[in-house]
Amino acid sequence: MAGENGSPKFDDFDARMKKLRAESGLEPEPERPERHSIGGAGLQVGVELFAGVAGGAIIGYLLDRWLDTWPLCFLVLFFLGAAAGMLNAYRHIRKMSEVPNGDSDAK
Asked: Where are the domains of the chain?
């Protein structure tokens, strides 16, 4: 198919392995937390910030040219885009730093 690159799906395989482990009396494998690379996370945060600022600036510039109100829309949408980019970056960092299995209430 067009969207598949030929790699098999492992959901069925994992289900069969769990069933065989349970039948043979072996301990189930511990769940592994998701791993994030530092470089990938930094790149994602940078893209979120840049996209918000650039998107707001471009839309503001185009609106200013159309409405002939030069700095007004540009400035407003530039800062709104920057705020949206920071919020998206914050959400991404927050999602990455969550402790798996909900064990975040340390005493």
From this structure: 37-99
